[in-house]
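Handout for the seminar on molecular recognition.
Each group receives one record of this type.
Step one: identify the two inputs.
Step two: read the structure output and locate the region that could contact pyridoxal-5'-phosphate.
Step three: write two sentences on what you found, then compare them with the reference statements printed after the record.
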Amino acid sequence: MNRIDQAFESDKKDILNVYFTAGYPELDDTVRIARALESAGADMIEIGIPFSDPVADGPTIQESSTKALKNGMNLKLLMKQLEELREQVTIPVLLMGYINPILQYGFEAFCKDCERVGVDGLILPDMPLYEYEELYQEVLEQHGLYNIFLISPQTLEDRIRKIDELSNGFVYMVSSSSITGAKGDISAEQVNYFNRVNSMGLKNKRLIGFGISNRETFVEASKYADGAIIGSAFIKLLSENASDNNIKKFIQEIKGVS
Amino acid sequence: MSMQESKYQVSQKGYYGKFGGAYIPEMLYPNVEELRENYLQIINEPSFQAQFRSLLKDYVGRPTPLYFATRLSEKFGAKIYLKREDLCHTGAHKVNNTVGQILLARALGKKKIIAETGAGQHGVATATVCALMGMDCVVYMGEIDMARQKPNVERMKILGAQVIPATSGSKTLKDATNEAMRHWINNPADTHYIIGSVVGPHPYPDMVARFQSVISEEIKAQLLEKEQKTDPDFIFACVGGGSNAAGAYYHYLDKEDVKLIAVEASGLGNESGKSAATTALGKEGVLHGSRTLLMQTSDGQVVEPYSISAGLDYPGIGPFHANLFDSGRARFVGITDEEAMNAGLLLSRLEGIIPAVESAHAFAALSKVDLGKDKIVVVNLSGRGDKDLETYIKWGKY
Ligand SMILES: Cc1ncc(COP(=O)(O)O)c(C=O)c1O
C-alpha cells in the first residue's frame, strides 16, 4: 500500500503536510530536515525540486529555490541525497517540481529513481492533463508513484471530476487564486469553494494549501478538508533558523502539541 | 484559414509538430482556456476584423511599404526588398499584435492589461494601445533591462502605464514574463495578459502569429504588383521569440520554394558562453507554458542568454519556430553582435535607414547565405534604430 494512503487511513485527523525546498538552506539539509519534520510530528512531506523559473511560486519559495541552486542542488544530487531517505524517514514523501528539470533528467529515469529511493508521489504543477494521460501516466503507475493534481477556486466542476479521476492519494486544493505565499484569513468565498468541492463526493482525500501559515489557519483549513499543507511559512522559518529544535517548536505549535 | 491545413500550423491540441502545448499551473488554466475557447471565433468575426483592419490602417500606418533597396541589391547581386515594419507607429512590428490583442481583451470583457517587456518595444506598444482604449496597463520589466532601456521606460510612463521591475531570478525578460504570469494568477477575473511574441501556452503562439500574419499578407500583394508574382525566393527575419518572423513567413509556410531564413543572435559567439542562439545551443524543454527549444543546463535550469540586442535576448524560441527548425523548413543562421552592428551601419550608409539592432541581425545574414543571381529576397525590417541610438553610439566605428 502506498504510504500516502496509509497516512490517510490511520486514525490521525488533520494531516499536516509540510513543503520545503531541497538543498535549502544548506545543500546537505534535505534529509536532515525531512527527519526533523517527522520527529516533530509532521504527517507528510513535500520536497521541492528547485527550478530557475517557478511561475506558480511567490517570492519566499522562489528565493529558496535560487539559494538552493546556488548551493549546488540539482536533480541528480537530490536523488543521491534521497538514497538515505528511507533509513531515516517513514512518513510519505512527495516530490514537487516543474516539469523541465524532470524532462532533462528523463521522465522514466526520474520515476524509476523515485521508486528506488522511496518517494511515494509527485506534484508537478505545470503538467497538463492531456499530456499526462498521453505520455506520463503509465510510467508513473509502473513505478508505483501517485500523482497529485491541483485544483483552484476557478476550476470548473467537470474538470475537478477529471482531475479527481487522474489523481491518487489526494487532490491539492489551492485555497485561493494566487501564487504560493499569499496571506490572510479564510474568507466566506473560500469556505463556499471548499464546501462546493466537499459536496462533490470525490474519490480522493483533499488537502488545502497556499496561504496556510500558522495554527489558526491550519485548524480552520482542516475543518474543510483532510488536512493542510504549509510551505512558505516553513521556508521563512528555515531562512531564520533551520535547527531541529526550531523545526520542532514550529510543527508542535501548528499541531497544538505542547 | 481553418486549423491545421498545414503541418506548420498549430494542431487542434495546440501543437506544432512535437512543440507547443499549454504547460501551465492549474491557477492559470481558466484564463488560458477562456482565450483558447474564444479567440478564433472573436478574431474571425467581421466586426472584429473591421476594427482591427481600420486601426492597422489609420493608427499603425499599414500597409507598410515594400521597398526595393537599390544599392543594397547591387551589393549582393540580388533583388532585395525591405518590408518596412520600422515605419509602424511606435517603431516596430510589435504593435500589430498589441492592437489585435487589446481588441480581443475588450471583446472578452477584460478591464486591465498586463504585459512583459525586454527592450521595452512590446511594453511601449502595449502602453500605447492601452492609452488608445482607456485601459489600465501594468508592464513588467527586468530590473536590469529597466536600467539598460531608460527611454522606453519613460515612454511607457508618459503613456500612462505602470512599469514594475522584475527583481527575481536574473532580472531580465524571462523573469519579467514569470512576474506577468504570477500577476495573472493573482488577478484571474478582469485581466488580460498581452504576450509580446509567439511564445507562451497555446493559444498564444497561434494568436500572435495570426495578428502578425498581416506582414506576409501584404508582402504577397506588394510583390505581385512589383514582380508580377507573389512569392520571393528568400525571406529573412530575426528571431527573438519569433513574432516578426512568424508574420513574415505565415502565408508562405506551405510554399516550400520560398526559403525561410531565421536569424538568431549569437552574441559574442556560440562558444563564448555569451549567446542567445537557441537552435544552436538549446535543447527541447518547457518554459513559459510551452514545449520548445530552450537554452538550459544539463539539470534543466534555464540559462540566461546574451545578445547586444535586448529584443533577441530570450532563452527560447516559440514552438512555431522550433517546429520549422526541427522539420528543416526554415534555415537558422547565427549572427554575432559585431556582424549585426556592421550590417546596421551598412544599411544606414547604403539606404539611409538605421535599423533596430534586432533587425540588423537579419541583414547581416544576407552575406551568410548563397543567394544566387537576381533572386528575389525580402528582409523583414522589424523595427527602427531610434531606440538603439545609445547602442550605436557606444559601438562607435561609424
Ligand atoms: C525591432 C524588433 N525586432 C525583433 C524583436 C524580436 O521579437 P520577435 O522575435 O518576437 O519578433 C524585437 C523585440 O523586442 C524588436 O523590438
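Reference statements: The mean pLDDT of chain A is 96. The pocket of pyridoxal-5'-phosphate is lined by residues B 92, 118-119, 121-122, 197, 238-245, 311-312, 356, 358-359, 382-383 (CB under 6 Å).
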